[in-house]
Amino acid sequence: MGSLTAPAATLPTIEIPGENSGPGSPAWSSTAEAVVAALEQYGCFLANLSNFSSKVHSAIFHASEELFSLPTHVKTLNVLPTPSHGYVGQIPVVPLYEALGIENPTNHQDVKKFIDLLWPSGNDHFGEAALKFSRAMVPLDQVVMRMLADKYGVEESYKTLKGATYYLLRFIKYLAPRDKEEDEIGIIPHTDKSFLSILHQRQVKGLEVRTKDGEWIGVDPGSPSTFVVMAGDAIMGWSNGRIESCCHRVIMRGSEERYSLGFFTFIKDVKIHVPEELIDADHPLQFKPFDNFELIHFYYTEEGKKSKCPIRAFCGV
Description:
Low-confidence stretches: 1-8
Number of helices: 10
Distance between the termini: 39 Å
Number of strands: 12
Mean pLDDT: 94
CATH superfamily: B-lactam Antibiotic, Isopenicillin N Synthase, Chain
Number of domains: 1
């Protein structure tokens, strides 16, 4: 447990310890070292949650299918103030891609608000699936953040970030390629504007991540207990560049549609500062304090769209 098990050209897979293996235990320490090493080397890793229910896995993807089967004019009601958090679809540059989002998805009232908008007569099983899945993701997000804090020695920064975490659940669908003999872009290469992103896939492949030397690695869906943990631009800024945000894309092949889920962590209502502990002679300050949601809005400006590294363009020193 805790070791990086990946050979070349595959991502590390890390077994995440249960609730009884907290800070100070052998399992925690070795796993934390593996988590930090993977994020610093790849910007991501595969997390195995042995206690994640296969019933929750089945229920959330059934809910996703039901959601995307709604008429387009209903799905487009999912409008949110933050760019890309609500409905996205029917875009010429990525015609296979469609997504909807629920902000604060661990809260019953916010999930109900989403349901009332799209299913005025109600949809209890959708709500139950969304809540159970989201609440199962919070411990994974929190344990990764705590492990980073422990290994970097930034306890006070961690407390501030934990108190300001804000979650978004995105349901994502990719149509099969229009020409079954040709590969087609599902989503263009990009980095997330989140602090952390947790992706969950079903059986259809397509996700690829780019290594530091420019190689693209395919990320197999794995078992129902497998999750992809990715560093977003906000964690790159917070870590003073020790962790680089993970560039990823989706390439669609074959004749099957692809469903996936994204559980995103943002930092809300406080500015993100590089902890003093992460600034030294070998690591001079690279980023000014920044607001995570202002970063998202910047990304959708002309300057943000043109920048090769949005976080550096936004608040780089």
